């Protein structure tokens, strides 16, 4: 009975260690993906989190099992919940479908610009994207996003004008405007007919020169 209990205990310990290794591997991938998405170097993340650069490097390479305190500091620096950082990935094929009825719509104050939220809720903390439709003269005024954020507007129909702190540019169908959105900015429909575009917002992207 004692031998059997020891075997069960050894098996349980082995399972726990295997689980810890899997979590560590997923954790490293998650930390590295978020760091690169925010365009942070190892040194910059180390400075913001208070975790040594060498430790972060070891975590990303799956060479160490960090403490909960270390994971918490990294999650704070990356502006994500600790649950998201610890979440393990699924290796199974993934496909998800959303209907038009399930897609939330944001409307500008003048009622002439509509943003269909087609982005994935799991990426909203660092990546957002919208389908924009606007009537002539419609204006979408926006407050500044997080410092270093960049917005991209790809026009598929009509003409849009983007005003960023007094600097104005226009884009027609087939053209794309990319601009800092960490300051007041506005998107206007300046065509004679309706206009459409895809808007992508990268939160905390590299600060543009």
From TrEMBL:
This is Helix-turn-helix domain-containing protein. Keywords: DNA-binding, Transcription, Transcription regulation. The lineage of its organism: Bacteria, Pseudomonadati, Pseudomonadota, Alphaproteobacteria, Hyphomicrobiales. It comes from Methylobacterium planeticum. PANTHER family: HTH-TYPE TRANSCRIPTIONAL REGULATOR, HTH-TYPE TRANSCRIPTIONAL REGULATOR SUTR. SMART domains: HTH_XRE. The keyword Coiled coil does not apply. GO terms for molecular function: DNA binding; DNA-binding transcription factor activity. The keyword Aminoacyl-tRNA synthetase does not apply. Residues 31-85 form the HTH cro/C1-type domain.
